[in-house]
Amino acid sequence: MRAVLVALAVASLAACGGGGGGGGSQMTSPPPTGNTPPSSNGITVSNNSFSPSTKSVAPGTTVQWAWNSCTGDGYSGQICTSHSVTFDDGSGSPTQDQGTYSRVFNAAGTYNYHCAVHGAAMAGSITVQ
User: Fold this and answer.
1) This model's pTM is above 0.85
2) Domains identified in the chain, total number
3) Which end of the chain is more exposed for a tag (fewer CB within 10 A), N or C?
């Protein structure tokens, strides 16, 4: 019985493939499908942070926030965490777990924002100068 178990263990390990170099292909998980790459002037909304958290722009600039808060893979499913971009004056995006939000900044000043779900622990600012 012990010999059978050892043989099964060896066969299982061999079937998993090796990490060796040789030209074989390795299977990788596809990235989560709900994530959106930020624009070149954009801000990433990820799990519990805005990146970058502070940004300086010229008047008339459009800033885009892109949600990248989905984790998981294409095989076992994914989880997308909801966030918002909420400015101190109450304006901003809806609470969402995917997609983008854009705002044009015309007037000079500092515009503080946070996530309505996570509060001050997830905050940022836009400085228009």
Assistant:
1) no
2) 1
3) N
